[in-house]
Design goal:
Blueprint lengths: L4 E6 L6 H12 L2 E3 L1 H8 L8 H19 L5 H11 L5 E4 L5 H11 L3 E7 L2 H8 L3 H9 L1 H8 L6 E4 L5 H9 L6
Parallel strand pairs: 1-3, 1-4, 2-3, 4-5
Helix pairs in contact: 1-9
Length: about 180
């Protein structure tokens, strides 16, 4: 039986986490666990909001759950439940961790099965990818969740620049049996 593997993705918004998730899923069979999808089930009316307001509401709900659960909500009701319901799946992908405590809880719960991958890109690239005005972009990156997510590169097992490698190249590195040193 194959060894359980859980890849945690972190990095700034619009860095390419969703694109990398698709590459890992399509080419290597990783199953995505979406914290955003879980939050969407808890916040009514998101479809009627503009994207910036919707993003803010999801961040607020995540913050509320962080405070209520000591950041465990991504591990316990979301990831652990999904993994327990599909024991035949050995490659899992958490599309966005935003806090160090979340990473710590994943490592405490799943041990060596966890690999934390952080994605980066130049700020100018992220601004263009965001499609926001400079002012709206600066507001978005000043949000505490975004600041926290960007800092997770310091504790990641691997860091990849999404402007120097394609999503397929990064996915290939991640999927290889060779783990980070």
């Amino acid at each position: 039986m194959a060894e359980l593997r859980i890849v945690l993705l972190s990095g700034p918004f619009k860095v390419g986490k969703s694109t990398l998730t698709a590459a890992l899923s399509e080419a290597f069979g990783f199953r995505k666990i979406s914290s955003s999808d879980y939050l969407r089930t808890l916040v009514p009316g998101l479809d009627a909001m503009d994207p910036a307001q919707s993003r803010l509401r999801l961040q607020e709900k995540g913050d509320q759950l962080d405070a209520e659960t000591d950041y465990r909500w991504v591990v316990d009701p979301v990831a652990a439940t999904a993994i327990a319901q599909a024991p035949q799946i050995t490659g899992w992908l958490i599309d966005a961790v935003r806090k160090r405590r979340q990473v710590d809880h994943f490592r405490d719960h799943f041990g060596n099965a966890v690999e934390h991958v952080h994605l980066i890109a130049p700020e100018s690239t992220l601004l263009v990818r965001s499609g926001l005005t400079q002012e709206a972009y600066e507001t978005a990156i000043a949000h505490p969740n975004e600041v926290s997510s960007r800092a997770l590169g310091e504790i990641a097992d691997r860091v990849f620049d999404t402007t120097t490698q394609t999503p397929q190249q990064i996915a290939s590195h991640i999927s290889s049996k060779e783990r980070a040193p």
